[in-house]
Amino acid sequence: MVKKYVLTGGPGTGKSSIVLALEARGEYIIREAAEDRIKLKQAMGVREPWAEPEFQDGILALQLQRETRIPESVGRVFLDRGLYDGLAYVLEGTPIYQRILREARLAHYDKIFLVEQLGVTKKTVVRKENHDEALALGKKLEAIYRRAEYPLVRIEMGTVEERVQQILEQI
Residue 157 is part of a domain; what is its CATH number? Predict the structure, then answer.
């Protein structure tokens, strides 16, 4: 069975950089579905894809597709966000919240790494949150994974390589 390791945390913590560094070391990775969906929609001329009613549905579908296509032969995979992350971006009790929660409960993750904030968060064309919003989302994500009864391993500030080392030492 493939071991799944999730990197979670607020926007701008460096998760994607860590995942790419893991890939450079030969690890199997899954990139962040939301960022890829935003980039695709923007390339198609949609300036603010997050404003579309079906935006979160598209992210969920892409994440599920990626997670179900992990080859058994890889042994382990590092995910830039897990299914539970989607809950932080939708209103509790809504139909999309319920769909994400249902799919997340069916998933199994072996370890959740909570990547600490770097101290500054800059808005970009794919990141709409400011620093305060990013901090709030980080706390919300921590609460979501704790509610799902996943123990969290904190990845402290440091260089990308130091953070990769912190992760590899925990598996």
Answer: 3.40.50.300
Q: Indicate the number of domains in the chain.
A: 1
**pTM of the entire predicted model:** 0.91
Q: How far apart are CA 147 and CA 68, in angstroms?
A: 24
Q: Could you tell me the residue range of the domain that residue 110 belongs to?
A: 3-169
pLDDT tens for each residue of 84-99: 999 999 999 999 999 9
Question: What is the residue-wise DSSP string for the chain?
Answer: --EEEEEE-STTSSHHHHHHHHHHTT-EEE--HHHHHHHHHHHTT-S-GGGSTTHHHHHHHHHHHHHHT--GGG-EEEEES-GGGGGGGS-TTSHHHHHHHHHHHH---SEEEEEPP-S-----SS----HHHHHHHHHHHHHHHHHTT--EEEE-SS-HHHHHHHHHHT-
In the prediction, which pLDDT does 134 show?
A: 85
pLDDT tens figures, 49-72: 988 989 999 999 999 999 999 999
